[in-house]
Amino acid sequence: MANKEYKAFTKNNLKPYTGSIVLYFVLMCMATLFSIASILSVSNFLQILFDTPTQATENPSQLEIILNNVYDYCLSFGKHKALWLFAAIIFAIYFLKDLFTYLASYFIGATRNKIIRNIRNKLFEQFSTQTIGFISKYKKGDLLSRVSNDITEYDQNVLQSLQTLVNNLISVILYFAVLLYIDYKMTLLVLVVFPPVAGIVSFFSRKLKRSSKHMQQKSSHLTSILEETISSLRIIKSFNAIEEMNSRFQNFNSSYTRLRNKINRRVNLASPQSEFFGNCLVIGILLVGSQNVICSPVLMSADIFIVYLIIFALLIKPAKDISTSFYNIKKADAAKNRICEIIYANNTIIEPTNPINIETITQGIRIENLNFAYETTPVLNNINLFFKKGENTAIVGASGSGKSTLIDLIMKFYNVEENTIFFDEVPINKISSKGVRKHISIVTQETILFNDSVKNNISFGNNNFSDQEIISAAKTANAHEFISKLPQGYDTIIGDRGGMLSGGQRQRLAIARAILRKSEILILDEATSALDTISEHYVQEAINILSKEKTIITIAHRLSTIKNCDKIVVMDAGFVKEIGTHSTLIENKGLYYQLCKMQELN
């Protein structure tokens, strides 16, 4: 992963919204200018209120001349009318200031939300398109934390801080310009504080970045513990491990809290640091400014000095918030890097430039001299097989023999060497992933259903099926009878992972979903291993109906379920050891025979 991609992450996300950002900048400049105008109008208001005559200074500035002219003009209408006139002017100025501030917040708020939306979409797209191997490297809780906690952290501590930083920089620059214009000598005192503040901010930012990375890792681990606990609640309760899990979570949570306290203290230190230097400057300005007012000749009028003090007081907060913004941006570096780690991860599945589209599979799947390794660990060795259309081929073997890996390669979840897997006569490397998978339906041991209606679960992946087609597929899968008895029939919401249904019912829904797709290839990955005898009977009936017209690949540990398969492939340690029917393999008394003896199967 290129480090420059990490650094350019925020820039790349802001680039599509350059127009909105420029508009925000202009609106904030207008709001700040009207804020300055409101302060300058205070000078005239104070003169009228206290009946102070216009003071003549030794070298009046253009600003002072303009304010005195406005004062003299308004006073020509009389003191009482002048007060109303200035009140109206100040009201209009404040109204415009607040209007521009609101418009700036309106546009930048929508922009921030769109940026977060785009990042979240990119993360989700990566989760769905990355290889199974890549996703398997991470805990579920860690991935969930990146979409929720890390994005929230990025929004609050980067985007919001950048917004605050721009706002404060505009205020500081414009306020500072006015102060320089009023009295440049006194304003130069402000610059004294910048070198030490910059050094202190830099020192604490480096320490904060390291601590923040550690905190984000702990945050994702915390989410993982929660996810594992909720998923494993039955086991935790069964083994009376509630106290142990509570203790483990509380200990980790305490460690996480201590780290958060440590980071928050460092962030909170930024504000009093800059405020201390600001207060020192106020004292210095009061001393110098008072001398300019009371000296003879007068170097600065009292009302202008009051305006100067007000502007400087307003300058302190945005100047202080600038250092806080830098703290927060550094604090979110860890969250940003964790998001970038997923977004900029390369998808190792190589898609063909000009993919070949296969309308229908007429022969089957052929595998020739297939070898495969996870990084450096060999998993499959010199595999040669043919899954013929219209036949049910079973793959058996001990755990780790390579059965599931072989299926993952057929599904194009991983890259394979060229000319090793063929759909009819077309190499899988010349077919897109989508093109391969449209011909395949899969039913797994762990039935994957969604917290949605029965109808939407059966038609998952394609909403163009009619109700009649869905019902027909359910009948073929022996599922229509129990679906009809549900409270809302096909519109019944079946809960998280189909929790309202039994294991057999869930599996029959999964088979109905496979039937509805009308794929030529059906993969049954331990589809009946977790079912009771009655449920297995219903599911097996549905499979037998399908086997007449489809290429079926059945992975099984329970050998009784594949006795009647057309062909049985026996795998061991990544090699194909035997191929034949149940009866011929029993007669050979090889590995399959030994497996059958273990299960007391004749």
Describe the model.
With 602 residues, this protein is α/β, with parallel strands linked by helices. The protein has two domains: 3-213 and 268-343, ABC transporter type 1, transmembrane domain (ABC transporter transmembrane region fold, Up-down Bundle), CATH 1.20.1560.10; 364-598, Rossmann fold (3-Layer(aba) Sandwich). 62% of the residues lie in helices and 10% in strands. The chain is built from 22 helices and ten strands. A six-stranded mixed beta sheet has the order 6-7-8-3-9-10, with helices on both faces. A four-stranded antiparallel beta sheet has the order 2-1-4-5, covered by helices on one side. Helix 3 runs antiparallel to helix 12, helix 9 (194-231) runs antiparallel to helix 11 and helix 19 (503-517) packs parallel to helix 20 (533-546). The chain starts with a helix and ends with a helix. The mean pLDDT is 78.
Could you outline the blueprint of secondary structure elements for this entry?
Blueprint: H1 3-7, H2 9-14, H3 18-49, H4 62-75, H5 79-129, H6 132-136, H7 140-182, H8 184-187, H9 194-231, H10 233-238, H11 242-294, H12 302-331, H13 333-343, E1 364-374, E2 377-388, E3 392-396, H14 403-410, E4 421-423, E5 426-427, H15 433-437, E6 440-444, H16 454-458, H17 467-476, H18 480-484, H19 503-517, E7 521-525, H20 533-546, E8 551-555, E9 567-572, E10 575-580, H21 582-588, H22 591-598
Q: How is the biggest beta sheet arranged?
A: 6 strands, mixed
Q: Could you say what the CATH topology of the largest domain is called?
A: ABC transporter transmembrane region fold
What is the CATH homology-level superfamily of the largest domain?
ABC transporter type 1, transmembrane domain
Give the class from helix and strand content and strand pairing.
Answer: alpha/beta
Q: How many helices in DSSP terms?
A: 22
Estimate the helix proportion, in percent.
55-70%
* CATH architectural grouping of the largest domain: Up-down Bundle
Spatial gap, N to C terminus: 55 Å
Radius of gyration: 36 Å
The number of domains is 2
Number of strands: 10
Strand order of the largest sheet: 6-7-8-3-9-10
β-strand percent reads 5-15%
Overall average pLDDT:
78
Name of the top-level CATH class of the largest domain: Mainly Alpha
Instruction: Sum up the overall morphology in one term.
Output: elongated
pLDDT < 50 runs, ≥5 residues = none
